[in-house]
Design goal:
alpha/beta; Rossmann fold; Immunoglobulin-like; seven-stranded mixed beta sheet; 31% helix; binds beta-D-galactopyranose
């Protein structure tokens, strides 16, 4: 029987790009690197079904058998992100149309409309064929549906489906007209047939229209996923099913909502920074994945899986940057620290051709005699030693993130073009990261038992339920930090009247009268030495007290950060984007008041500490992201070296330690 207690280690494997003798070499190299799981078949549709209804499974049979014989398990993908040329030629109506009305053509990947009946039929057919053949294959550990759902379309199929979705959501046109405030600019609809997708138009779109289209499209993609999932589940209910989420605020997918539909949350994460921000981005991705995994569940541990990341490269600023030796390992262990059941990469072997021939790989064009492969072997050995860590990640702080607020804030008619929900979430999360405090990124409205402090960054859309959720948390003795723009609009992006932030004025004890967005390079000084950027506003105290105030301009002497005792708890309001240090200090103070301390007090700056603990014991992950040796006050036995530290752990530059803490049984 395959050993499934091992962490998942491996990545996207594309045997269809290579002759069989390379498969044998691959499997041999995988064994040497202790690879435990590979994702096969993601873009293999044209090799699996070269003509409509004619399948060529022989090569895949052989590959799966080879992998099985080497005790390597398989995440078998449905190849529906890459329809073959014959499909596009036979079904031109299933090719996607852009917002400008341009019909795209075959020639890349993901060139289909997810609402087109022909595409969905073809996707179901290839999924059924794969399920019939492999649902009981002994190598199969996981179904990997599709790849990174995220494309959009404006074709007539989409338009028809959008109208049906709208009718379902709003019931009648009066309700829709009211929700979208169509009295503005003569947009009142008197027939469903008048409503199209938000295509290119003369000037600004209606915000409600745009927002509903994003929601509709997320639901449409979700149905395309669940359709496949159900076929796979029926074929063998014991094999878990997932799909890999692509992260980024441009993605038209509400992943939190999707998470109840997958058996395991799986994310792809590609940092867009070369400096230490890459590590904070990775931590944010991981904490978000864990929050999704826990979303709407009572018992889930928060386990998730890093399905893709680049082994040796970071792509940003128009070029590839090499990760320094050891960084791949450190980043991988950081993901495991935050709950990933392993580390998978894009990709196993770099292809000779194709659009991504220079993308990162564990076996690059240089072959196995390379630094990267040697580091891959070392990583395999390290991950092997971490398998005993099964305890949940310890977090008593929750940060909310909300894709719909992100979509709504991108509307060009906002008071500033610099409003970015994702950046606000990242800023709050980064401040906690620097403070050494672990948080879960949660979906607004999730259960808050166990969380002492709730951080609400730029949660622009707040419906009555979420408003009550924040209020009840604080009233019942919880703590909250809420930042600017939160609660300004309702779920349809209609502004709540009577002073901002309409949905949260009472719990915050403030009333905001006017917004004063800041210029790109403008920094406003605050009492206490901090500064604000991006945004400022006229805050009136209606029960709260000022913590800091603006010191210049029209806002001179007016509150910038406030604090309000509400029921048995306390809520802070932050009316600007605080500089990094001030933000860290504020969240450290709010956490301290809430009874939350850093994971490992005394940890030097640049060293990340994450604890996983539960009834089976406690493990402390220490990751030195600096280029100097560091000493951390901690105790336990390092799973990587076997060395026991009693009061201080020495980490080499860029090094990691995973301590089984005292009293944890072996
Ligand atoms: C991912 C995608 C892979 C590959 C990779 C390149 O987002 O899922 O198929 O394109 O990026 O870095």
């Amino acid at each position: 029987m395959p050993d499934d207690t091992r962490l998942r280690y491996g990545g996207d494997y594309n045997p269809e790009q290579w002759p069989p003798q390379v498969w044998r070499e691959d499997v041999d190299l995988m064994r040497r690197a202790r690879v435990t799981l590979v994702t096969v078949g993601v873009f293999a549709w044209s090799r699996l079904e070269p003509r409509p209804g004619r399948y060529t499974f022989d090569w895949l049979d052989e590959v799966l058998d080879l992998l099985h014989a080497a005790d390597i398990r398989v995440a078998l993908a449905t190849p529906t992100a890459g329809p073959p040329p014959w499909f596009s030629l036979a079904h031109p109506d299933a090719l996607p149309v852009t917002a400008d009305g341009v019909r795209l053509h075959h020639g890349s990947r993901d060139t289909y409309c997810a609402a087109a009946p022909a595409y969905r039929r073809a996707a179901r057919r290839i999924t059924t064929a794969l399920a019939d053949r492999y649902a009981h294959h002994p190598a199969l550990a996981l179904w990997h549906v599709h790849n990174e759902y995220g494309t959009t379309c404006h074709c007539p199929h989409t338009e028809a489906a959008f109208r049906r979705w709208l009718a379902d959501r709003h019931g009648d046109l009066d309700t829709l007209n009211d929700a979208w405030v169509t009295s503005f600019w003569s947009q009142h609809y008197t027939d469903w047939a008048q409503i199209g997708t938000p295509r290119a138009t003369q000037y600004l779109h209606n915000p409600g229209h745009l927002l509903d289209f994003r929601r509709f499209w997320s639901d449409t993609l979700l149905t395309a996923y669940t359709e496949q999932r159900d076929l796979l589940r029926t074929a063998n209910p014991d094999v878990p099913v997932t799909t890999n989420y692509v992260l980024g605020d441009w993605v038209p997918v509400d992943h939190g909502r999707w998470s109840r539909e997958v058996d395991l949350v799986a994310v792809d994460h590609y940092p867009s920074a070369v400096d230490r921000d890459a590590e904070t981005q990775a931590a944010l991705a991981a904490d978000t994945a864990r929050g999704w995994s826990r979303h709407g569940t009572d018992g889930r541990t928060g386990d998730w899986l890093l399905m893709e990341t680049a082994p040796n490269l970071i792509y940003t600023d128009g070029r590839m940057h090499t990760k320094e030796p050891g960084r791949m390992l450190r980043q991988s262990v950081a993901h495991v620290a935050r709950g990933s059941r392993g580390a998978l990469f894009f990709q196993w072997r770099a292809p000779r051709g194709g659009a991504e021939r220079f993308h990162s790989a564990l076996v690059g064009h240089a072959g196995a005699d390379s630094r990267v492969y040697r580091e891959a072997v070392r990583l395999g050995h390290v991950l092997d030693r971490l398998a005993e860590v099964r305890a949940p990640v310890a977090a008593t702080v929750a940060v909310t993130a909300d894709p719909a607020s992100g979509w709504a804030l991108r509307h060009p008619g906002m008071p500033s073009t610099r409003l970015d929900h994702h950046a606000e979430v990242a800023a709050a999360h980064g401040a906690l990261w620097r403070a050494g405090i672990t948080c879960d990124v949660v979906v607004a409205g999730d259960r808050l038992d166990g969380y002492r402090l709730l951080v609400v960054p730029a949660l622009y859309l707040v419906d009555d339920r979420v408003s009550a959720w924040v209020r009840d948390h604080v009233h019942g003795g919880g703590y909250a930090v809420v930042t600017y723009l939160s609660g300004v609009a309702d779920e349809h992006a209609r502004v709540r009247l009577g002073g901002y932030p309409g949905a949260l004025r009472d719990v915050l004890g403030i009333r905001v009268e006017e917004f004063h967005p800041l210029a790109v390079d403008e920094r406003v000084p605050l009492t206490g030495g901090g500064t604000g950027t991006v945004w400022s506003e006229t805050v009136h105290l209606t029960g709260a007290t000022a913590v800091t105030a603006y010191t210049t301009g029209v806002l001179h002497g007016r509150p910038a950060v406030t604090r309000h005792r509400y029921g048995a708890g306390t809520a802070w309001y932050v009316s600007t984007r605080l500089d990094d240090d001030t933000y860290r200090r504020l969240l450290t103070e709010a956490a301290r008041t809430a009874g939350v301390t850093p994971v490992c007090p005394g940890t030097p700056d640049g060293v990340e500490a994450v604890r996983r603990s539960g009834p089976d014991g406690s493990w402390l992950f220490l990751l030195n992201h600096t280029d100097r040796p560091q000493t951390v006050p901690a105790a336990g036995t390092d799973l990587l070296t076997g060395v026991t530290a009693t009061g201080a752990v020495d980490l080499p530059a860029g090094g990691v330690a995973v301590l089984r803490e005292p009293d944890t049984p072996q």
